[in-house]
Amino acid sequence: MGPDHGGLAVVTGASAGIGREIARELARRGHPVLAVARRVERLEALATEAGSAGWAEIHPCAQDVTASGAETRIAERAAALGGARWLVNDAGVSTHRPVDEDDPAAIRRVLRLNVEALVLVTRALLPQLLASPGGRILNIASLAGMQPTPWYTVYGASKAFVISFSEGLAEELRGRATVTAFCPGPVRTEIFDVSAPGVTRRPTRRDADPAESARAALDAAERGRVVAVPDAMGKAMAALVRVCPRALVRRISRKAAVRYIGYDPPRR
Question: Element (H or E) spanning 168, and its range?
Answer without folding.
Answer: helix 153-172
